[in-house]
Specification:
The mean pLDDT is 87. The chain has a three-stranded antiparallel sheet. The N and C termini lie far apart (104 Å). It has 362 residues and is mainly α. It is 64% helix and 2% strand. The protein has two domains: 198 residues, Up-down Bundle (Transcription Elongation Factor S-II, Chain A); 149 residues, no CATH class. The protein has 17 helices and three strands.
Amino acid sequence: MPVEFDKKDLAKYPFLKEAQSLVNDRAYSVENFIKSEFGKKISAKAISRINSALNNNYIFEDDRQDNPEAEILSYAISRLVVSCMKERQMNDKLCRYESERAAFFLQTEKPEKKDYVAISMGIDLESRRIKVPDYIELVPNLRDARWQLVNRDVNEGYVSIKREESEELLKERIRSVLHKQLPLPVGDSICSLLQSMVGEISRAYQEKLMEQFGEVNESAFPPCMKAIINAVSAGTNIPHTARFSLTAFMHTIGMDTTGIVEVYTRAPDFDVDKTLYQVEHISGRSGTEYTPPGCATMKTYGLCVNADSLCKNKNIAHPLSYYKIKKKKEDSFKKTVESETNKNRTEVLTKKNNHKDSSVEK
């Protein structure tokens, strides 16, 4: 007997094909829908959805969705907005938010409906094993050591999995499938209609980025990135992997294209057109925004050099982690020095004023 999903069900899993059919019927003309009063209300809900994703707000309520159609449509609009932003990290955040949201509802879902969602995503919850290639494709973003293939029971081309692990893999499969779909091929006319929303989220994203990384501080760069910059300054012909890693790193911590290009101007053979093209490509102008490789990959590239004590910290597995911790320490030290300086200055002024007062009394 086929499993039937009503609108309230689809509101919980708006990525299912049945929900997409509803979107197509309700908003067959995207431009007209966005311009309509109802479309504006849905757009506001989409903004709220994206902001929740941006702030990692994974608190969901099982309220059976008072307005399921609005939930489904806001999901669709939110994907259009982040696609127009052309920011890979926003794609990542939205997809993770939607997978966490779906996982919340799946916890209490009826077995037949949970199985349907799983099968739709290519996961068989009843199976206690998964093909090695499928497993390898699923787990790269799962950081717990238990997911590493070397720590798994592998037999005849299959990886053994427990029931609860199947549900974890389902959540990751939802995230992965949604991520592969973004960015959507949104036309310029639609992006133009969504410009105010895109601008609002872009500003919020930049603010979040500044909260996370703050003003760029080159002295807090990890040794590997400093080494690449030194090589550039010395006129060394660095490999593509080094140029890619440095550019992706600088873009991710918030440096704009001009700032990144300026780093490469230190090279004796600097070519502005060639450098600008490469930087824009890696930064996402081509439609694909790249993230910097982790420490393990940097070692594979032969770029993990001059490791210091912070590099050897077990919590450091990525150049970005190093930068955040080092910068936080330097910012804290700077504030302490400024505070002490201001305190000493105040004490000196106080002594001077007291001396003046005593002189007047005499």
